[in-house]
Design a protein that fits this description.
about 170 residues, alpha/beta, 4 strands, globular
Length: about 170
Amino acid sequence: MSAFPVLFVCLGNICRSPLAEGIFRHLTTEIGAQDRFPTDSAGTGGWHNGHAPDSRSVQVAREHGIDISGLRARRVEPADFDRFALILAMDQSNLRHLRGMAPAGSSASVALFGAYALGREVDIPDPYYGGIEGFHDVYNMLFAGCRSMVEKLDAERASWSGNTSSVR
Ligand code: 4NP
């Protein structure tokens, strides 16, 4: 059974995408599908390389029984476009950045998290400069999207060959 690796991408890889990674892993683990859907997160910017997630993301995740404190930030790299089947951007700016750096002929599908997971062309708003409420809102959006993704991906995985799709 082939795996369907999913990468979540935001700007700094300390607020939104580690939360998405933690939620997605939590939900796939709940149904015993964590090996079929390996996951990671990364940032389009590298300022926080090696840093733990923002304490507000750690707190909100913990309130929902999810521990993301061990994650460490990293920047997106060209190899990610072949290593991952699906790369989901948190906002339009992240999406433009990803499309601009995707190597020609790479196999990953690149999409907006909102469009792919929520069925709406919405950004997951950057909560970094706001208060904790923004992190709760982000959590709720990410949880709703990840829950529907887990159902949808199970069907997609069956048709994914790992090297024939093109970056969208
Ligand atoms: P993230 O949030 O992209 O969700 O991780 C941000 C984190 C850090 C910065 C901006 C956004 N920053 O400017 O350092």
